[in-house]
Amino acid sequence: MYETSDIRKGLKVTMDGYPWIIVDFQFVKPGKGTAFTRVKMKNLKTGNVLDRTFKTGEKLERANFEERRCQYLFNDGNNYTFMDTENYEQIAVPAEAIGTDAQFLQDHMEVTVLIYEGAPMSIELPTFIEAEITYCEPGIKGDTATGATKPATISSGAVVMVPLFVNDGDWLKIDTRDGSYVERVKK
């Protein structure tokens, strides 16, 4: 069991017989009354998103997920196929279960596949990835002080907002949690 103080992004719980993952949360301590936690949760079976409020001291049931380290192989349109790195078994995860995380998948990338009651429900990407820019507008030398950004397409197909000085062929470190540019890297 989890306490409300354990709530954080990515926490997996079971509620009403369904597996849920915490997408966002906010701890609120009003001037009067007891503190509470406002939570946005995603149902991993149906994809529904729910806003829920938990009073301080409420308990949340821990979800029994099996987590497997897997390597991304390919996408056939409906499913993304991964290979378990321990037993080399292939696991097909439905495209709708992966959602927007698919834009950061790269060939042979290692991810964690979440399995609930024998069925793959979701994946967890590494927090940071390194990717090459395949297209962006030309950079402007010396323009680093304004904080302005421009869209850039990376090798996985995702579009990331980057500083103006970044060019085609540059390698970037990207935060997969929010799709933000972190820094340029040398390759």
The portion of residues assigned to helices is under 10%
Instruction: Give the name of the CATH architecture of the largest domain.
Output: Roll
Which fold name is given in CATH as the topology of the largest domain?
A: SH3 type barrels
User: What is the average of the pLDDT values?
Assistant: 89
Question: Which descriptors apply to this entry?
Answer:
187 residues, mainly beta, SH3 type barrels, OB fold (Dihydrolipoamide Acetyltransferase, E2P), six-stranded antiparallel beta sheet, five-stranded antiparallel beta sheet, 1 helix, flat
Write a compact overview of the structure shown:
The chain has 187 residues and is mainly beta. Helix content is 2%, strand content 54%. A hairpin with a 5-residue loop joins strand 4 (36-43) and strand 5 (49-55).
Write the layout of secondary structure elements.
Blueprint: E1 2-3, E2 12-15, E3 18-28, E4 36-43, E5 49-55, E6 59-62, E7 66-75, E8 79-84, E9 90-94, H1 95-98, E10 110-116, E11 119-124, E12 128-136, E13 149-154, E14 159-163, E15 171-175, E16 180-185
Antiparallel strand pairs: 1-6, 2-3, 2-6, 3-4, 4-5, 7-8, 7-10, 8-9, 10-11, 12-13, 12-15, 13-14, 15-16
Please explain how this structure is put together.
The strands form three sheets. Strands 1-6-2-3-4-5 form a six-stranded antiparallel beta sheet, with no helix packed on it. It is mainly beta. It has one helix at 95-98, and strands at residues 2-3, 12-15, 18-28, 36-43, 49-55, 59-62, 66-75, 79-84, 90-94, 110-116, 119-124, 128-136, 149-154, 159-163, 171-175, 180-185. A hairpin with a 2-residue loop joins β2 (12-15) and β3. The model has no long low-confidence stretch (mean pLDDT 89). The chain folds into three domains: 2-62, SH3 type barrels; 66-124, Nucleic acid-binding proteins (OB fold (Dihydrolipoamide Acetyltransferase, E2P), Beta Barrel); 128-185, OB fold (Dihydrolipoamide Acetyltransferase, E2P) (Beta Barrel), CATH 2.40.50.
